[in-house]
Amino acid sequence: MPHFKIIPPFKVALPLCRAPHTSPARLSFRTFSTPSNAPNDDLPLSGVRVLEMGQLIAGPFAGQLLGQFGAEVIKVEPPNVGDPLRVWRELDVDGTSPWFRSIARNKKSVAIDLRKQEGRELVKRLAIKSDVLIENFKPGTLEKWSLGPASLHPYNPSLIFTRVSGYGQTGPWAPRPGYASVCEAESGFRYINGFPDPETGGLSGPPVRPNISLGDSVAGLHAAFGTKKRKRSRPGGTTVDVSILESMLNLMEGIVPEYDRKGKIRGPSGSSVTGIVPTNAYPCLPDPESPSVPSYIVIGANGDTIYNRLMNVVERPDLTGPAYQQNHHRVQRQTEIENAISEWTSKRSAQDVLDAMTKAGVPVGRVVSVKDIVEGQQVQARGAIQDVWVDGNGGDREEGWNLKMTGTFPVLEGVSSVPQWAGPELGHHTDEILRGDLGLTDVEVNNLRNQGVIG
């Protein structure tokens, strides 16, 4: 059985291999300590250990998804500062971002300094006892630290490396830093978002971006999906290579094959979508409580029979019949159709439009803010927003507070959608993991903390 010796101050060398998995149906079957208020035996990934080494959004979002379905996620963070997301955007009364509390839900925080050799040895031992390692460093970083597949697979042949980067682990662009914003641009996604120039069909001015890090979240979804679906029959370790660029390409529908076969270069389309009519955002009368705020409603009536019902609601039955019956007919008459709908909606409130369209069976939705979402009837009925307790300093419930965050999606029958706990304080689980899982003594843990290896 292979061994390696931990450099001082450790005194005990632990084996670096483990018994192989006994069942091909799951990633792993082992028991870990979890908070007593967070039973997760019924979750589909219960018994799976994930070592999350990523920061900010893409890698941690993948870890969030795996943790929501029962995986034990151990998040490695640098001591003293932690994941930079802890202090991004709005900060709570304790100086921590509510966003971090959400994306780090159900995770255990271990503060280890990867700049120190002793810290890297600790992470190596944790990885050898894990099923999945998630990272979103620049390609080559783990190899520089001797924590890549070649270094760890000899000791843990079944370890899944889920690697998220801007452009993937290979290719001429692999070494480039790849943030979501630039990868969204390079994927062509930004080019189709904005308003078209009437002469060229291309962008009129700069592209419009969604006010979220879409590429990171899409890559995180791909990472979680790839991790779960990797083939059990493949011998040796597995790498899930997730590129933000390619994840965004996966959203581009028929753009590539249409270009290949028809030479079409799809451009921006404002608030509509190219080649599908009618589906758009239409103006309504302002809300009396906010008369200066524009009000819009989205109608999607591109189904043939739905279109006919819509035209009857907007009192334009003259825009039905053979010349408008199928989508390709309506595309040729888009301006006429859109103007007719806008003329009708602009004279009515959003609620009046919503009521009329719903009664007629026409898909319709308000353009709402987060306030409307949190207070929304459907969201509340489904438990899509949950209150999760955040302990105050030291865990005194009287000093804590509830934090609203999204629940667990998709909804699985018989499985609670309530997050088990909010993102923890930095290093909250360091001692628990090092003592309980790596077998370090109190003296060894204290020595590591005194030397700044752990926090």
From TrEMBL:
Gene3D superfamilies: Crotonobetainyl-coa:carnitine coa-transferase, domain 1 (3.40.50.10540), formyl-coa transferase, domain 3 (3.30.1540.10). InterPro entries: CoA-transferase_III_domain, CoA-Trfase_fam_III, CoA-Trfase_III_dom3_sf, CoA-Trfase_III_dom_1_sf. Keywords: Transferase. It comes from the Eukaryota. Pfam families: CoA_transf_3. Belongs to the CoA-transferase III family. This is CoA-transferase family III.
